[in-house]
Design brief:
The chain is of the alpha+beta class and about 325 residues long. Helix content is about 40%, strand content about 30%. The strands form two sheets. It has a six-stranded antiparallel barrel. A four-stranded antiparallel beta sheet has the order 5-4-2-7.
Length: about 325
């Protein structure tokens, strides 16, 4: 056979074979983007603003608690005594304000008027005696001063309390009430309560232990706020968008897909964390993607998860 004919047949065969491979590749359905992660849940550290000695521990690690439920109670004897003393101060300040606001009693004004009238009569009598030369001018001057002093006292009582006195008494009462509110707020802090529904993750206290102020006394896990953080290679980031629906597979439930959605995409690239393995190792830089679940009792923090993102967005 002619060598040119053989060469043409070989080239034709190669072209046909390449076309078949191309068609097979084009006809293959692309798989969705997949990324691995671990289910996590929001945890909250709770403690007391005042601290103190533990009087009672009401729950244990692993217990389910409701929002507002007492976890730990601290001794509050000192605060109770301080509050009792402050209640007395508030009552005293409130009575003083009422006294200043009402002003002098009618009996005090009547007595002041009688004193002034007597002093004025005495002054007039001595004025007449002075005109006749019986008493000295010094005695008359003394009686005039006494009568004027008592008249000014009567005017003061009839005018009542000054505005500045009422303002001062009001401020004193407000100060004592603020101090009482502060002490009562401290007593509220002597009971550590759950800030939300959840599960007690850590609680290592017993009666008699000392708890420092502003230090965590327990950690509460909130299963109702589940999420998964996966790492998507930079080359695949275009297939992910905030709000996108994602199917999440859990090893414990191989035949079930859990619905999630993208709530956060990292703004900066980072190198693949050592504790995270992406399914595609061809890229060294990745973006973190946070997926949120609908609350469900089936999912637990720590479960391994595989997230599948759809290609069509």
């Amino acid at each position: 056979m002619n060598r040119n004919v053989v060469k043409a047949l070989v080239v034709s065969s190669l072209v046909l074979g390449s076309g078949a491979v191309l068609r097979a590749h084009q006809g293959k359905e692309p798989k969705g983007l997949r990324a691995a992660g671990t289910i996590e849940a929001k945890d909250v550290s709770v403690g007391s603003l005042v601290g103190g000695r533990v009087a009672a521990v009401h729950v244990a690690e692993g217990d389910a608690v409701a929002k507002g439920q007492p976890l730990v109670t601290l001794e509050a004897d000192f605060l109770n005594h301080a509050i009792g003393e402050q209640l007395g101060r508030v009552a005293e300040a409130r009575a003083q304000l009422a006294l200043v606001t009402r002003g002098p009693r009618s009996e005090e004004r009547a007595r002041a008027r009688v004193d002034w009238e007597n002093a004025e009569s005495e002054r007039q009598r001595f004025e007449a005696l002075r005109a006749r030369g019986i008493v000295s001018a010094q005695q008359v001057d003394s009686l005039r001063t006494s009568a004027e002093t008592k008249r000014q006292l009567l005017v003061q009582l009839e005018n009542g309390s000054r505005g500045e006195e009422i303002a001062a008494a009001t401020a004193a009462l407000s100060r004592e009430e603020s101090r009482l509110a502060y002490l009562e707020r401290q007593r509220e802090e002597s009971t550590v309560r759950a800030p939300a529904d959840g599960i007690v993750e850590t609680l290592d206290l017993r009666p008699g232990d000392l708890v420092s102020p502003n230090q965590p006394a327990a950690s509460i896990l909130e299963p109702s706020q589940l999420w998964v953080r996966v790492y998507v290679p930079e080359t695949e980031l275009g297939h992910v968008s905030v709000g996108q629906s994602v199917d999440v597979a859990i090893d414990t439930f191989p035949n079930r897909a859990f619905a999630a959605r993208v709530v956060e995409i990292g703004t900066r690239a980072e190198y693949t964390p050592r504790n995270v393995q992406t399914l595609d190792q061809r890229s060294d830089t990745v973006f973190s993607v946070k997926l949120a679940f609908e609350p469900t009792k089936a999912l637990k923090p720590g479960m391994a998860a595989i997230a599948t993102f759809g290609r069509a967005l």
